[in-house]
Amino acid sequence: MQDGALAFGLTMGAGMCTCLGAAVVFSPRLVSLANKKFLASSLAGAAGVMIYVSFVEIFQKSLVSTLFLSLPVFLLFYAPI
After folding, report:
1. Residue 30 pLDDT
2. DSSP track, 6-61
3. What's the DSSP call for residue 65?
4. Is 56:11 a contact under the CB 8 Å cutoff?
5. Verdict on whether the full-model pTM lies above 0.85
6. Pick from 10, 5, 1: which is nearest to 54 by CA?
7. Whole-angstrom Cα Rg for the chain
8. Alpha-carbon distance 16 to 9, whole Å?
9. What is the pLDDT of residues 7-21, one digit of tens each?
10. How far apart are CA 61 and CA 54, in angstroms?
């Protein structure tokens, strides 16, 4: 359960960073106040968290469960990748 809570928290944080970056870009008043380094770092943080959650947590668990289910399923779906 703790891994699920960590993944959910990281995903929520990434979503908030993405919304913050989008809100700043679409608001003309905030565009003049926005720092390009801040925008870049918040969007990079969101992308990094999404990549971490997707490839490390979800892919690893699906790979392990697929290997335990059957080797032919693994060979059909994951070997070409």
Report:
1. 74
2. HHHHHHHHHHHHHHHHHHHHH-HHHHHH--HHHHHHHHHHHHHHHHIIIIIIIHHH
3. H
4. no
5. no
6. 10
7. 18
8. 11
9. 888 889 888 877 887
10. 10
